[in-house]
Each structure stands twice: as structure tokens, then as C-alpha cells.
Write a structure and sequence with these properties.
Mean pLDDT: 95
CATH superfamily of the largest domain: NAD(P)-binding Rossmann-like Domain
Largest sheet: 6 strands, parallel
CATH architecture of the largest domain: 3-Layer(aba) Sandwich
Distance between the termini: 16 Å
Number of domains: 2
């Protein structure tokens, strides 16, 4: 059987992609776009049978890209989020889209806990004060996390692990997910947002969840931690709630626009921890990600069911054309 044409979209040099995908051997013919723009993506798609997605969301399989890829049989996204891909267009073309669920759950949940502790114990303000020559033993007013009510929005692998970690420190934990559950820990979204001392956001971005969390509805003095996507939280309302003192603080790993623009008001607020979308990036999670991607690509070429399909298409991959790949 001829090699599969694999188009790799991650923002890595071609030699690095070849090294990462080396275990696939001569079963694939690897290509990358000539440049990181839509024109180059569309030019490369007619030959593509498998697309390895771009975790930055710069190059995406929207409806136009799907239409430009008549041979496409499988899209593997090397992340949990599938932002920008047109799931309906891929499904209509019979192309399964898979993500890598769970590979970053440990890393992201640890970040959420660490960020909450940094806010609650005023670690950033304490560090800045000491560096400036002050010694504010009385004025910072940090709080213990134990006993605080923590609400987790999203209950996939990351949300479940967040709940475990916060419970381990003695927090009273509830959660909300789009599918109601007969579980004492499940709570109505409005009650969770308005009644929690800490709100942790780890739900996927979709049309249904965009603007889901309005920080102005949160409890006075509460903390907001967002490691999902910027669009899940109303960012303008968040800046307002922080500026007015309604919120005690926020920790953000994600933003509406990334990188965060120079003039964004969040940059000037003292009670917010800003992180460059790296909550899930550790050597350990990267290793799990590479393994998951390679396993799925191998399964696709073997005719076995792939894991993590998110658009309702059969997880068994079939080639659409059997003739030799386009040179």
C-alpha cells in the first residue's frame, strides 16, 4: 500500500515534525505548508489524506479548507481544544476529527490549584513588596484555602482532577457541566457562580459556552481561575469586576486575543495573575500528547478505531482514494 499523505500544521520546523513522527516510518509522506497562512494551507490540502492540526489555531480546517481537501480521511488535533475547526463540515464530508482528551489534565489541574493558592495567599503581592524593599506582614490579608467553597465549571478529565485536588485541601467542591448528573456534587450554574468563593473554569469553548461566565454575578471577593478559553468568560465584565473590587482576584491562562495585546486593561490591574496559555505545557504532558497522537495515527492507518473523535463520525478511517499520492 502506498504511503499516506500527512499534512502537518503545528508551528514547528519541518525537521522537528519529521523527528516527532519518525515512529510512523515510511507509512506516511510528510508535508508542511509552504508558509503559515491560509493561502499555503489551501494549496497543500488537495493531496492531504491525514491532517495533523495546529494547536495555536492559526491554521484550521474550516468549511473552505474541508472543501479543498477531497482526499481527506482523518484530522488529528494535537490538543484538547478544537477551536476553529468546522466540526459540521468535517462530519458532512465523513471525516472524523479527534482530539487528545486527558493528556494535559494533571498539568492544567495543578496550575489551577497553584494559581488559586497564589491568589488566596497573596503571593504575588508579597513578592513584589519584598522586592521593592517593603516588609508588609500585616497589610496583605491572605486567606486559607481550606474550607472555601470551590465551584468547577466543566467536568471532563481536567475538571474531575481539579475537584479531587481542591477536595484534598479541604475545600467544599461542587461542579457544573452541560449534561446534568444525579450527583450530590452537581450544582446549577447560577448557584455555583454566585455562591462559590473560588470559580475554576475548565470547560471547552463552543457556541453554547461562549460568554458563559459573567464575573459580575460572582460572590463579592471571590476568585476566578480560567484555564479553559478566553471566550468562556466575559473578559470586559471581568476587567470591570476586578477594577471595582467586586472580585478578590483572577488567574488567567487564556484570553480573548492571544498574545494579550499591549493595551489590554488586564495588564494594568494588580489583582490578576496573567499566564501565557501554558497551564497544560509540561514535559510530562507533552510526552503523553505525542504518544496519544502517534497511537491514533497508527490506528488510523491500520484500520483500527481511533480515540477521541469529537464530531460524531465513525472512528474507523478509510482512504478515499487508493491511487498513488500526488507528488
Amino acid at each position: 500500500m502506498s504511503p499516506w499523505n500527512l499534512l502537518a500544521l503545528p508551528p514547528l520546523p519541518e525537521h522537528a515534525m519529521r523527528r516527532l513522527l519518525g515512529p510512523l516510518g515510511d507509512r506516511v509522506t510528510l508535508r508542511v505548508p509552504a508558509s503559515r497562512d491560509r493561502k499555503a494551507l489551501l494549496a497543500a490540502l488537495p493531496a492531504a489524506e491525514i491532517v495533523l492540526g495546529d494547536w495555536t489555531g492559526t491554521l484550521v480546517m474550516d468549511a473552505g479548507a474541508v472543501a479543498a481537501a477531497p482526499r481527506l480521511a482523518f484530522v488529528q488535533q494535537p490538543s484538547v481544544g478544537v477551536d476553529g475547526h468546522d466540526l459540521a463540515a468535517l462530519a458532512a464530508a465523513g471525516v472524523p476529527l479527534a482530539n487528545t482528551p486527558g493528556v494535559s489534565a494533571g498539568a492544567v489541574s495543578e496550575w489551577c490549584l497553584a494559581a488559586t493558592l497564589a491568589l488566596s495567599r497573596k503571593l504575588i503581592a508579597a513578592d513584589a513588596a519584598v522586592r521593592a524593599g517593603d516588609w508588609p506582614q500585616q497589610g496583605l490579608l491572605p486567606h486559607e484555602l481550606r474550607g472555601r467553597r470551590t465551584g468547577v465549571i466543566g467536568y471532563g478529565p481536567i475538571g474531575a482532577m481539579c475537584a479531587d485536588l481542591f477536595r484534598a485541601l479541604g475545600c467544599e467542591v461542587t461542579y457544573w457541566t452541560r449534561t446534568p448528573r444525579p450527583d450530590p456534587g452537581y450544582q446549577d450554574l447560577d448557584a455555583l457562580v454566585s455562591g462559590s468563593d473560588v470559580v475554576v473554569v475548565v470547560i471547552a469553548l463552543s457556541d453554547e459556552t461562549r460568554g458563559l461566565v459573567d464575573p459580575r454575578r460572582m460572590k463579592q471577593g471571590a476568585l476566578l481561575v480560567n484555564a479553559a478559553r478566553g471566550g468562556v468568560v466575559d473578559q470586559d465584565a471581568l476587567a470591570e469586576a476586578l477594577r471595582s473590587g467586586h472580585l478578590g482576584g483572577a488567574a488567567l491562562d487564556v484570553f480573548d486575543v492571544e498574545p494579550l495585546p499591549a493595551g489590554d486593561p488586564l495588564r494594568d490591574l494588580p489583582n490578576v495573575l496573567l499566564s501565557p496559555h501554558v497551564a497544560g505545557v509540561t514535559p510530562e504532558s507533552t510526552g503523553r500528547l505525542v504518544t496519544a497522537v502517534l497511537d491514533n495515527l497508527m490506528a488510523a492507518m491500520d484500520g483500527r478505531a481511533v480515540k477521541g473523535v469529537v464530531n460524531g463520525v465513525s472512528p474507523k478511517i478509510s482512504r478515499k482514494f487508493t491511487q498513488s499520492p500526488i507528488a
